[in-house]
Structures are given as structure tokens and as C-alpha cells.
Structure to design on (318 residues):
């Protein structure tokens, strides 16, 4: 074993893939539901974040990384959320 | 006496983040990419809220079924990429090579479908500068079927520029990913990766999954919302 070798717990990747495919189908259905615009947008954003989390946690292995790497990976996200909320406040509230 | 000899060897806790340099490097790069795409998405939100009449209703200009297929392709390429990494981790190098080839081909297919989408949209009259006068889309805009705030097709200029900027930059990232993937695949066939050392596959894989993750967000906010 070398210093570069890392062994992750390998989840069932095909199950994650199936979950992503099903959620994509759900998104396509929700986008054209006769709900209020705000509810459709909110549901679609929740589904997108859910899918993105599945990719990050299982395909990018953040679920199985050391804590220091997880912190490193999520460090830019608060800044990203601040930017998005800041620009939204310009028009929403 | 050298500086290192004076200082002595670093203590264990000073050796780094506990991951190899290339992996740390790609995570730093991905952190900068998060901010890059956040800037684009933030700009899109500002433009969209400030000009609600400039953006067409979902599915009226952009082809959602074609893009949904592309989304599915990218999800498939992510699973084949992670399966290649898992195969390398398990020492099954033949399977690793097959999955790398599949990932490269599916990634190239994504770029191909996006090229088709752009060609089709430009043919319909949807340009970065807006909707071309006299085009099929311009007639739909004049008939009020696109949900634009004005019958003047030029109102969609912000829509066109933001759409092509966001999806174009993402497509550029995918193209770079396909090139990197092809490079890694060639190296794999030359026997450069082993069960003990397959750093290149993990590093390129992290980039590839990130590109998939960004597309998941873009698909929702650009095409469905």
C-alpha cells in the first residue's frame, strides 16, 4: 500500500444513479404542474439541491471523506449562498 | 548548513491536509469554480428579477425534452466515472478502462447534443442578442405565445445573452472534462494506473462530478424555472 492509496466505502452507485434519474423525471413533472409559480419554483430548487447533494456525497465521496476535507469542500458554499440571497433581496423584499 | 538541516524535519501534524497534493489542488480549484458559477447564477437572478418580461415561459423557446436527455447523459457519465474509480480501487483495471471509455463517449455525446441544441435554437432565431427579426420565434413572440413582456422580439436580448453565457461556459467545462477524460483513458490503456496509485482518475473524476452537479442546478434555473 502506498501513501496515495485510499479505500472508500463504495455505496451502490447504480442506486444513486437510479435516484438521480427518478428525481429528474419528477422535476420534469413538477415544472408543468398547475401549482402556483412560487410553489413550483420552490419545489424545483429543493429537488435540484437534493440531486446536487447526492452527487457530492456519493459520487464525490464527501460522505466518506475525513471531516477536514468536508469542511474544505463546503467552505465556499456559505459565500455562494450569501451572494444569491443578497442579489435576491434587491428584488424580492 | 542548509535551511532544512537547521529547521529539522517537520512534525507529523505539519505534513499537510492528509490528502495527496493533486486532490487538495483540485478541491481548491473546485472552490474557485463554485464562486465562478455563483457569480453567473447571481447575475442571472438579478437580470431575471429586474426584467421579468425578457424571459420566455419554460418550454416555449428552449427544448426541455432534448435537454432532459442531456441531463440524463451527464448523470450516466457520472456513474460510469465513479464506477471506473471504484474498479481501480478494487484492482479491476480492465473494468476501469471500460468505464473510462464509456465516460469519455457519454461526455462527448453531451457536447454533441448541446451543439445540436445551439444550432437548432439559432436556426429558430434565438441568438445571444435576442430573437432574430422575421424568424419563427419572432412570429411566436409577436403572437404573445412566448410569455414575453413585450411583442418586440428585441426584449429577449438579456434572455439570449444570459442563456448562452451560462450554458456556454458550462459546455466549455464539459469539453475540457472530455479532453481530460480522453487523456486519462489513454494513460489507463498504457498501464499508468495501478490499484495502489490511480490519483489521476480520482482528480479528473472529482472535476467531472462537479460539472455534473453544476448542470443539475443550471438545468433547473435556466430551463425549468
Amino acid at each position: 500500500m502506498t501513501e496515495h492509496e485510499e479505500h472508500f466505502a463504495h455505496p451502490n452507485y447504480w442506486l444513486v444513479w437510479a435516484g438521480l434519474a427518478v428525481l429528474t423525471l419528477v422535476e420534469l413533472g413538477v415544472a408543468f404542474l398547475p401549482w402556483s409559480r412560487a410553489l413550483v419554483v420552490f419545489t424545483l430548487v429543493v429537488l435540484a439541491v437534493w440531486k446536487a447533494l447526492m452527487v457530492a456525497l456519493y459520487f464525490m465521496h464527501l460522505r466518506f471523506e475525513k471531516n477536514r476535507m468536508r469542511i474544505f469542500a463546503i467552505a465556499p458554499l456559505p459565500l455562494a449562498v450569501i451572494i444569491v440571497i443578497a442579489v435576491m433581496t434587491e428584488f424580492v423584499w | 548548513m542548509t535551511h532544512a538541516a537547521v529547521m529539522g524535519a517537520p512534525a507529523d501534524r505539519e505534513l499537510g491536509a492528509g490528502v495527496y497534493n493533486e486532490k487538495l489542488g483540485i478541491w481548491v480549484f473546485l472552490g474557485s469554480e463554485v464562486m465562478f458559477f455563483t457569480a453567473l447564477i447571481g447575475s442571472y437572478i438579478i437580470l431575471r428579477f429586474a426584467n421579468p418580461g425578457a424571459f420566455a415561459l419554460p418550454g416555449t423557446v428552449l427544448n426541455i425534452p432534448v435537454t432532459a436527455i442531456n441531463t440524463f447523459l451527464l448523470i450516466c457519465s457520472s456513474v460510469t466515472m465513479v464506477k471506473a474509480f471504484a474498479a481501480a480501487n478494487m484492482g479491476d483495471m480492465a473494468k476501469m478502462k471500460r468505464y473510462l471509455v464509456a465516460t469519455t463517449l457519454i461526455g462527448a455525446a453531451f457536447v454533441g447534443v448541446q451543439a445540436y441544441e445551439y444550432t437548432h435554437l439559432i436556426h429558430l432565431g434565438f441568438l445571444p442578442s435576442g430573437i432574430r427579426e422575421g424568424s419563427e420565434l419572432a412570429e411566436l413572440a409577436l403572437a404573445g405565445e412566448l410569455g414575453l413582456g413585450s411583442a418586440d422580439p428585441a426584449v429577449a436580448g438579456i434572455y439570449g445573452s444570459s442563456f448562452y453565457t451560462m450554458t456556454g461556459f458550462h459546455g466549455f467545462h464539459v469539453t475540457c472534462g472530455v479532453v481530460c477524460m480522453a487523456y486519462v483513458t489513454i494513460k489507463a490503456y498504457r498501464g499508468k494506473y495501478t490499484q495502489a496509485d490511480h490519483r489521476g482518475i480520482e482528480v479528473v473524476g472529482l472535476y467531472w462530478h462537479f460539472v455534473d452537479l453544476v448542470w443539475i442546478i443550471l438545468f433547473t434555473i435556466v430551463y425549468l424555472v
User: Anything to note?
Assistant: Residues 20 and 57 of chain A are 13 Å apart (CA to CA). Chain A has a mean pLDDT of 87. Residues 13-66 of chain A form one domain. DSSP finds four helices and no strands in chain A.
